[in-house]
Design a protein that fits this description.
This protein is an alpha/beta fold and 201 residues long. It is built from eleven helices and five strands. Strand 4, helix 5 and strand 5 form a beta-alpha-beta unit. 32% of the residues are buried.
């Protein structure tokens, strides 16, 4: 694999077509994965990766391509896994947003559309800001809550992290059908030894 961990969509598609041993690992929540994902992708959510980095790194017998919604969570997963000894990982730059914008092939486990975490963060943050500004007409100090949200969003942009998104990921709406870790790791091992990747169900 190339030395840079980031691949744009066209480079990722060429890599996937040229090397069938590469496993796409989707690090989003199970609900996001169920709504739309790259065909053949394996769902190992970021919280699973952060909880079991050594097990997952050891199971990755072949190269993997990490995918999330925009690239932030995949970058975080990359750091965790390479720290655990994985040396054959790359990241889809721009995540599923870039993939779908380039009309990349997609699959889904159910027909119900779901909002991605980034969209949920915008809704919650915008709702809090609007509510606090309205409340400040009666309680002036409420405007400080809007300022805190703005500061939090600026910090999230600078650090490429999002505490609100991580909190929302814990909600039942975003949990979806969680996949058995042992089953997922068996598929990861199989892919690395020449086995065929299959959709999780």
């Amino acid at each position: 694999m190339t030395s840079t961990p980031n691949l744009d969509v066209s480079a990722a598609q060429a890599l996937l077509h040229g090397d069938p041993a590469i496993q796409v690992v989707d690090v989003r929540t199970p609900a996001e994965y169920a709504a739309v994902h790259i065909p053949g992708a394996l769902n190992l959510s970021l919280d699973q990766i952060e909880t079991h980095p050594q097990r997952i790194a050891a199971a990755a017998a072949g190269p993997i391509l990490l995918v999330c919604q925009t690239g932030g969570r995949a970058t975080r997963a990359y750091g965790v896994l390479t720290g655990a000894g994985l040396d054959q990982a790359q990241i889809l730059a721009g995540g599923m947003n870039a993939w779908t914008a380039e009309a990349g092939p997609t699959a889904r486990l159910d027909g119900r559309p779901r909002w991605g975490l980034e969209r949920q963060v915008r809704l919650v943050a915008g709702g809090i800001v609007a509510s606090s500004i309205a409340a400040s007409l009666r309680w002036p100090r409420a405007r400080f809550l809007a300022g805190a949200i703005g500061a939090g969003l600026a910090f999230a942009a600078v650090t490429d992290t999002c505490a609100m998104g991580m909190a929302l990921a814990k909600l039942p709406y975003n949990r979806g059908p969680r996949f058995d870790l042992d089953h997922s790791l068996a598929k990861l091992r199989s892919r690395g030894t020449g086995g065929e990747s299959q959709e999780q169900a």
